[in-house]
Each structure stands twice: as structure tokens, then as C-alpha cells.
Amino acid sequence: MRWTLSITLAAFLALGAAVPGAAVSGVAVPGTAVPGADEIALAQSAAESLDIRGAWKPETYRLKAGPVHEVTGLITFTEKDWSVLFFIVTDEGPRRGSAEGGTYTLDGDKLTFRHLYNLSGGHAVEGFEASDLSMRVRTPDAEDAPAEPCIITVEEDLLTIFFPSGNQMIFRRNSD
Q: Is-contact 99 120, C-beta < 8 A?
């Protein structure tokens, strides 16, 4: 579907600039299917909604095994860098947390985190055993920096990150 998005947006933007409100269903690109107006609108909407730059507050952390945890903190994205600080919170207060950061790439709905910094640890909570404090720092050119390929969705002010582990986190765009 990646080729549909890029071809569709190019056709939409070119025709839209020349003829406001023009339908592009008659545009033919050799070797491709001709997108309809609905596909063009959907592709344009998806492309616009995947701008993740800025700050987002985590709301829930859903584990593949089933438990759902309340979380608090903040994840921020600049043009190329990201950092997150989040805590799993129970009635007893913050039980475990993580501070991570590095660089990222975004290609459509594929978000790949490159982990340069990590500080994590905490008490046991459903789905996680207790863990000692762990710290790791890598230089930006480190060859051993883990890459974490994720899939994302952005719907209005909600960002959902689907991690390779099967876990997922939901964030709400921070308007402050």
C-alpha cells in the first residue's frame, strides 16, 4: 500500500494545486492501479495524521498477555530524536518506570526506535517481575544500538504504538 500512498498524494497534490476540488480518478500511472477519490482522501488523511512530532502523554500500557496498566509520563518526538519517561502506577503509587531515548525513523505507519539511552527498574506488577535498576548509554554512532520496529496508528489526538513484543501503549497528544 506504500506505493498507493506516495502516488496518490503526488497526484492529489499536483491536480489539487492546478484545479481545486479536481477528482484524480482519471489519472493513470503506468504499472499501477488508478486510485479512486475515496482512496485519495484516505491516503491524504493518513499522511497528515502521522505527524508525531511534539509531546504525548501515556494513558495505558496493554501487555500481550492481557494485563492493562495505567501509566503516566511523557514521550516527545522532534524531527529525528525521541525520549520517553513513564511510570506504571497502581493504588500504591508508581511501581516501575523507564526513561529511554535515542533517534527514530518514520516511514508511513512504521516507526523504528533506535535506543541510545535507557534507565529502568521497579517493583513487580501484573505481567512484570521486579527488576533492579538498569542503566545503559550508547553513543549516537554505536553499532550495537538496538532498533525496535513498531507499527503506529494516529487517530485524532491518540497515538497507539504496537511493539514487536505484542504489547501496546496509547498516548494522548499533550496540548499544554
A: yes
- Residues in Cβ contact with 80 at an 8 Å cutoff, skipping those fewer than 6 apart: 103, 104
Return the domain boundaries, the chain.
2-49, 54-173
CB 58 within 8 A of CB 173: no
95-125 per-position pLDDT tens digit: 999 999 999 999 999 999 999 999 999 999 9
Grid coordinates given for 34: 488508478
**pLDDT tens-place string over residues 20-29:** 333 333 334 3
pLDDT at 176: 64
Domain 54-173 sits in CATH at 2.40.128.280
